[in-house]
Amino acid sequence: MCTVVVSIDPSAEVPLILVGVRDEFTDRPWLPPGPHWPGLLGGRDLLAGGTWLAVDPAAGRIGALLNGWGVLAPEETRLSRGGLPLRAAAEGGLPDLDPARYDPFHLVLADRAGARLWHWDGVTLRDEELPEGTHMIVNSGWERGEENERVAFFRPLFAKAGRPDGLDGPWQEWRELATGAALPLDDPRAMIIRRELPGGRVFGSLSVSLLGLSAEGVRYDFTGDPHDPAAFRRVLPE
Asked: Which ranges of 76-143 does DSSP label H, i.e. alpha helix?
């Protein structure tokens, strides 16, 4: 993914809300979220076999991956980063991780009590807890200032969004923001993008995930049409 929004309010009926926008080459094959692994749900990357976002419904945990910047892993020992969200969601962390086998990444692990973030730049692995509030993680990492145009535009909007009063509460405002708030695809602030590259390949936003965690369980909405707030379908509860 290229953008993850995490909103944490321990006093709310839905204490944690997560939005994930997946950007990728449009010709890379994938499957929409489903039970592709025992006990876990998520979209499946058919090229490397992993995922960009995994959910353990029984544990109420989410693992969400973003590519990072830095030193690449040696080709002869490199593992796909797509296995990291699966490990995080299933195990509640990254025990015994050898980060040197992975290209740079940012990994979010969330449950209804809060969220933790790992950063690996190919040299140093760091982890930190996300405090109460609304946060955005992009490919450059956890952006806490206003230097990133996307973050400067969207974070205040997500922070002001009306919080649902339960997993079945009103989510329309979050759906509209998660699908780009109607910004043009070429706007420098855009969260939903499309880039036509030399050679004819296209890189763009392929899907959006919207999740809520509460004492009730997990709500997981997904759309493969990231421009349309009405196109979400329910993954959880089934």
From this structure: 84-91
